Amino acid sequence: MLPVVTAQEMQMADRAAIEELHIGETRLMELAGRECLRIIRESLQKESLAATSFLVVCGKGNNGGDGFVLARHLLNLEASVDLVLLYPESLLQGVNQEGLAILEAYSEHEAELRIFISHDEALPFVAETRYDALIDAITGTGLRLSKPGMALASPLTEGIELLNTLRDRTGAPLIAIDLPSGLDATTGFSATPSILADMTITMAFLKRGFYLNKGPECCGELHVAEISIPRFLAEPSSCLLVDQEFAAEQFILREPSSAKQRNGKILIIAGSQSSESSMVGAAILSAKAALKTGAGYVCISLPISLAAIVHIAVPEAVVIGRDLSTIAEKASWADTILIGCGLGRDQSAIDLVRELLANSIVNSTKLILDADALYALSVIGTADALSQCRAVLLTPHYGEFSRLCNMPIEMIAADPIESARSFAALHGATVLLKGAPTVIAGTEGPALLNTSGTEALATAGSGDVLSGMIAALAAKRASLFNAAGAAAWFHGRAGDLASDIASLVSSGMVVDTIQQAIEEIFERQE
After folding, report:
1. Is 113 within 8 Å of 107 (Cβ atoms)?
2. Three-class HEC string of 207-263
3. What is the rounded distance in angstroms from the CA atom of residue 336 to the CA atom of residue 324?
4. Domain 244-525 falls in which CATH fold?
5. Which of 51, 270, 380, 444 has the most CB atoms lying inside 10 A of its own CB?
6. How far apart are CA 73 and CA 54, in angstroms?
């Protein structure tokens, strides 16, 4: 899995590369420029850059220095370059001053290079020029925003607005170097204005801000430039990005001679029925998802009057009622217990969750609490209820998490990673916080970010499917933390496949594509 770093972690890795590994700043900048050139050429799908035109807008820091190097390499490949300096040359220091000096020497020989020493000087010329690509090299990772929407000062505002305006008016792709200017690398907060890039080429490691708040909107397509900063300088990273390799590692294949009891036994306590409503569908979806993800044996505890419906929908599942002694007997048999999908929110459901979490057989088994079990948890008291659990995973969306931790949704959304990590550490639990991205946090170590899937998964029952998938992987010996990360990836991929089939995606369609997502990943490895 790739590390996802904060601005501070990136600065520390950058400094360590220079001071400990003796990789000079000039060398790092040269590598950055060359890698950007390679990625841009591939993106534009041009064998030759002759007769192509680029606008490069540079700030005064190292991001501007990367822009100077990129401009030089573009010129070496016979492209034409207009370079706009937003700050006076006197404010450039060290390696950046050197980079500009090289370009100024080039200008004596290169008819294809124009250097403008301010936004105002450049405006009459660039407004009349058609560019093949626009390059943002203004702020990079150095920008810090204490809140979203902060106003930027001149000349940053003028530089960003120039690039955004040209992108909108001409359709030329806007490429951000390292980070879209105006975006905070850690929080994903965006300033006013901020670059709206079509592509971001980031240096060495992915940044946390790419995935939070306005990050996805500002970044466009993401590429990582390898600039000789080794991964061990970013370790331990506070976040890792879930990928298909990690997901595959958590999916334990069946042994040829294995029996159903050896492939994961799951007890699902879900579903409800009253005179006003029925939520048996949630139990069916979670059970189907668990079976599709490879569980060997699934037992569902629900009101026994619903047994016939479940047997028709999921004939593989065993059904038991809601008698606590019967549930406890099955709990002693189960590898993983899932509680909550469609359980209901009346007093009897809350009392059931309280009794289950206090039961020594239940709370000593791997537990997954979802949906209505999370509501019950917020009523009976999170700290006391969870203190008795040996290994427990909570799977809230933002609204459910807000009830559990008594934080406004807006505050959680501003920093979902630290919100989940703090809660997990406080309660000794694992948390899967659903959203874009989905955050998986344990009691220690890095958090996981999952970005697979699309808005097509925002459909009723999607969470029930995810919980069933997690239960299956956990029952097959993955830790709850790893099972949550891998299931989130498979769930997202299944959603992608379902959305390829139809524009409107149902949770049932997602269940139907789970096996396809799993088979696909192993086919890739072969």
Report:
1. yes
2. EHHHCCCCHHHHHCEEEEECCCCCHHHHCCCCEEECCHHHHHHHCCCCCCCCCHHHC
3. 17
4. UDP-N-acetylmuramoyl-L-alanine:D-glutamate ligase (3.40.1190)
5. 270
6. 12
Closest among 345, 376, 370 to 276, alpha carbons compared:
345
Of residues 504, 517, 473, 461, the one with CA closest to residue 313: 461
85-117: pLDDT as tens digits: 999 999 998 899 999 999 999 988 878 999 999
Quick one: pLDDT at residue 348?
95
Residue 426, amino acid: L
523 burial level (CB within 10 Å; 0-12, 13-18, 19+): exposed
Q: Contact 289/299 with Cβ under 8 angstroms?
A: no
Cis amide leading into 124 (omega within 30): no
DSSP reduced 3-state for 177: strand
Taking the domains of the chain in order of start, what are their residue ranges? 2-241, 244-525
Distances from the Cα of 283 to the Cα of 120, 302, 394, angstroms: 64, 8, 17
Looking at residue 455, what is its pLDDT?
78
3-state SS class at 337:
strand
Contact between 484 and 420 under an 8 Å Cβ cutoff? The reply is no
Nearest alpha carbon to residue 320 among 367, 271, 263, 372: 271
The pLDDT tens digits of the residues spanning 450-493 come to 999 877 787 888 999 999 999 999 999 999 999 999 999 999 99
Hey, CA dihedral for 197, 201, 202, 207, is it positive or negative?
Answer: positive
Tokens at 429, concatenated:
């639990």
**pLDDT (tens digit per residue) in 377-428:** 999 998 889 998 999 999 999 999 999 999 999 999 999 999 999 999 999 9
Cα–Cα distance between 520 and 507 in angstroms, integer?
Answer: 20
CATH architecture designation of domain 2-241? 3-Layer(aba) Sandwich (3.40)
Query: How many Å apart are CA 257 and CA 254, to the nearest integer?
Result: 8
What mean pLDDT is predicted for residues 18-23? 94
What is the rounded distance in angstroms from the CA atom of residue 153 to the CA atom of residue 159?
11
Beta carbons of 462 and 476 less than 8 angstroms apart: no
Which two tokens mark 181? 């200017």
Tell how strand 438-441 and strand 174-177 pair up.
Answer: unpaired
Residue 43 in this model has a pLDDT that exceeds 90: yes
**Dihedral sign for Cα atoms in the order 103, 105, 106, 108:** positive
- CB half-sphere exposure, 405, CA atoms < 13 A: 27
Residue 156 host element (H or E) = helix 156-170
For all residues of the chain together, what is the average pLDDT? 93
Are residues 193 and 157 in contact, defined by beta-carbon separation less than 8 angstroms? yes
Question: What is the rounded CA–CA span in Å between residue 234 and residue 229?
Answer: 9
